[in-house]
Amino acid sequence: MMKPVPRLRLFISVTFVLCLFVVFQIHKSDLFGKNLQITHQVNNFFISIASSSHHQTQNLTKYSNESDGDRAKQPESEETDTCAGRYIYMHDLPSIYNDDIIKDCRPLIKWFDMCPFMVNSGLGPQVLEHANKTSQVLTTKTGSWYSTNQFLLSVIFRERMKHYECLTNDSSLASAIYIPYYPGFDVSRHLWGYNTTVRDALATKLSRWLRERPEWNKMYGRDHFFVAGRIGWDFRRCSEDSEWGSNLMCLPEFSNTTMLSIETTAWTNEFAVPYPTYFHPKSVTEVRIWQRKVKSVKRRHLFCFVGAPRPTLDGSIRGEIINQCLASHGKCKFLNCNEPGNDCDNPVKIMDVFQRSVFCLQPSGDSYTRRSIFDSILAGCIPVFFHPGSGYKQYMWYFPKDYTKYSVYIPDNGMKNGTVSLRDLLGGIDKESILRMRNEVVKIIPKIIYTKPGLVGPKKIEDAFDIAVDRVIQRVAMVKRMMEEGKDLQGEYSQTRDLKKLE
After folding, report:
1. Does position 17 have pLDDT exceeding 60, yes or no?
2. What are the strands of the beta sheet with 176-178, ordered from one edge?
């Protein structure tokens, strides 16, 4: 926190200068004659100095001891309030629900050290320009590329919320209420070697904490939302017969809240938001430079696959994809993430493969979706989906409704029975269609990135965070109207997406 002595010295210095200028002004007619315009300009100059110094002093004091919600905007008059209908209230949760969870970062995910990725507000280590290869692949001079881990979305989202322009400390003004909880890391640290009681303990405690808050009684949690950081199924252990995941979304309180997850299930209060990518720009200019780059880059491969094989017995089509890729005589680039040294967490290596490919294959992995979907779109590579649940029924806030505009769909049955030749099918798409799809993919890029927390320049980027917040606000407003009209919420606003029936 700023010490009072420097602040006092600053105030005395500015006051002294102003006093000298007042004396100076007494004789302005002798010095300037009738040229009052110059005098007004000088006046304004000194006033701006005083105002700027006072403003900077306030900011330094304000941010020195910051907690969730401290950067809240003060409401203006109704006529000039640009945040009317957009205010978000962020609960000031006890640290056991967020900071304490990630403080002991080593055991967050078994067999994988998450500690290196916790830096830079969850963006991970910055990718530095240290070789020609890096500068050719990434626009590293902007300082906006990071080795971001796919599971850190809840941390990134919270840091962005601290800088949200319509954050308020007055919950009565809020259109929606954000819960800055890290449920993904809460459950992942207890997935192996712990019983379900331990796994569910913190979520159960949080549900009681929320229920006792005055903000809860307004809509009984239907105006609350949080970010999961993992796929939705990891929080749906609603039966004691299952051992996987937590029972978070089966608790009565959380059955009312909205969950934003990197992959949704079939419930009405879950919505999918993009996985974090490696690119976190701070200006519109950076985004446009990158968009121009990926539109003009030379693509030597017709298609590519970045990933690891999966057992065919599990119904995976990856084996067939890999076989066809290896037999394509150079038309396909395969980066095997199971091979030592391939380092599929390396942003430069991943983005290089995607930038040099026309189409990027996105088969299902451990679940329907993959972080690779968004990395490939960021590279301007046209995604190829094999199941509607991988993209079309997931990211409906972000992707065009007409999936043919930006992607290729190949039903996975054709891959399983061997009737589809990827080389022939993708090679048969004309250049005009490819150009049209790539242009649409490039348009999507600003919507699926998470910008760097803090100021993002004079022109705001409507990124994945902004879209999610706006849609949550819209949804809460709709639910509120339905509650006032006494309508059946489950029946009226149901957007069930039964992913098992999408084939």
Report:
1. no
2. 167-168, 88-90, 176-178, 224-227, 258-261, 270-272
